[in-house]
Amino acid sequence: MRNWTGTDLISFYQVLHDSYGHQHWWPSDSAFETIIGAILAQNVSWNGAFQAVCALSEAHLLDPHSLYNAGPSLIAPLIRSSRYYNQKANKIMNFLEWFLSSCKGEIAKMMAIPTERARDELLTISGFGPETVDSILLYALEKPIFVVDAYTRRIGSRQGWFKQTATYAQMQEYFMDRLSPDVALYNDFHAQIVNLGNKVCKKNPLCDTCPVRIGSGLPGCIHGKNQQTIQSPEII
C-alpha cells in the first residue's frame, strides 16, 4: 500500500481540478434542501434524487414544518424518482422529529452544535449511516468532515491508499490524517472523486482517458484494469 503524504493527495486533487474544474457540489438553494437531498440520494443517482427534491419544492414542502405536517403518505409519492421512496419518506420524518425537537427546526441551531456531538446525534437517527451524516455535516453545515463512499473505495484501493476491505472510518481517516481541516477542500475533493468514478474510474475503468495517468507525474494505479471492486451505497 502507498502511504501518501498530504502534499501527494493535494497533487492528486489538483490534477483532477485542473482537468475537470470546480465541481460546485452540493447543488441546492438552502442548507435544509441539501439535507433532504442527502437523504434522497441514498442508493440512487443524483438525477433521481434531484427530481425528488424538485417535486418537494414544487409542492412547497421544502420547509421543515410543512414537510413534517405533510407526513410520509404525502411525501412518498412525490419522491418516487429517488427509489425506496416509502423508506426514504420515513427517514425524512425521522430526521424531522430530531431536527424540530433538538434544533427547533432552525439550521443555525443545528450548525451551532459541536461537530462530534452533531455527528453522534445524527447517527442515532434510524436509517442514517456515516456517509449520509457526513454529507449533511460537510455540505449543509460546512463542518470539516471528509466524506467517503463507494467511489472513494474503488479509486483509493486502485491507487493503493487503502485496501478494498477498508472500513468507512479507515478510509475517512486516511484523508483527515493527511489534510488540513478545510471545508472547501474537503467539499471539492470528494466531488472530484465522485466525478472521476462516474466518468473514468468505473467498474471497468477507462484508464487511457484518466487525467491522473496521462502526464500527471503521479504514480497511477497499482492494480490495473481488471481489478474487481466492491460497490456499496452506504458504507459502514
Automatic annotation (TrEMBL):
Q: Which CDD domains match?
A: ENDO3c
- Annotated HhH-GPD domain residues: 40-199
Q: Which SUPFAM superfamilies match?
A: DNA-glycosylase
Would I find Metal-binding among this entry's keywords? Answer: yes
Pfam families with a match to the protein in the record = HhH-GPD
Q: Which UniProt keywords apply?
A: 4Fe-4S, Endonuclease, Hydrolase, Iron, Iron-sulfur, Metal-binding, Nuclease
Which GO BP terms, alphabetically? base-excision repair
| Any GO MF annotation of the entry | 4 iron, 4 sulfur cluster binding
Output the Gene3D superfamilies linked to this UniProt entry. Helix-hairpin-Helix base-excision DNA repair enzymes (C-terminal), Hypothetical protein, domain 2
PANTHER family cross-referenced by the UniProt entry: A/G-SPECIFIC ADENINE GLYCOSYLASE/ENDONUCLEASE III (PTHR10359), DNA REPAIR GLYCOSYLASE MJ1434-RELATED (PTHR10359:SF19)
Q: What is this protein called?
A: Endonuclease III domain-containing protein
Q: Which organism is the protein's source?
A: Methanospirillum purgamenti
Q: What is the lineage of its organism?
A: Archaea, Methanobacteriati, Methanobacteriota, Stenosarchaea group, Methanomicrobia
